[in-house]
């Protein structure tokens, strides 16, 4: 019999001036709040942020892979986000970049388990979505 394999996808959103510390802070916060030590964890970011130097530093420090999300996939996930920021809606076409990125990467059956968390300096956000795929 197949056992479900849990994937915890941490969606990240951040301003260009975000530091590796602020990205790492919200990443750690989202993972801790999800409280799923047995889940495989990965990061999801919108394509145009995937090569941001501070994101790469944070990803290396945590040894997590980065999945890039196209803007269209981000917008397609928007109906499932819990947080609504008017500013982000105007800029990106979604209520929450981090929530939409997490949901888009985790798949159609995924659900948010941690809504948007904001770094102390307010430059980075993270959310977590859970996907339970049936492993062969």
Structure, briefly:
α1 crosses α2 and α3 crosses α5. A hairpin with a 5-residue loop joins β4 and β5. The chain has five helices and five strands, in the order βαβαβαααββ.
Q: Could you characterize what this model shows?
A:
It is built from five helices and five strands. The relative contact order is 0.28. It has 136 residues and is an alpha/beta fold. The chain has a five-stranded mixed β-sheet with strand order 3-2-1-5-4. Helix 1 (20-34) crosses helix 2 (53-62) and helix 3 (71-77) packs across helix 5 (97-106). The chain has one domain: 2-Layer Sandwich (Nucleotidyltransferase, domain 5), CATH 3.30.420.
Distance between the termini: 8 Å
Assign the CATH superfamily. Answer: CobE/GbiG C-terminal domain
Order of neighbouring strands in the sheet with most strands: 3-2-1-5-4
Largest sheet: 5 strands, mixed
CATH topology label: Nucleotidyltransferase, domain 5
Structural class: alpha/beta
- The CATH architecture is 2-Layer Sandwich
> What is the count of DSSP helices, taking H or I runs of 4+ residues?
5
- Over the alpha carbons, how many angstroms does the gyration radius reach? 14 Å
Low-confidence stretches: none
Number-wise, the strands total 5
The overall number of domains is: 1
- State the helical fraction: 25-40%
Strand content: 25-35%
Average pLDDT works out at 91
CATH class, anyone? Alpha Beta
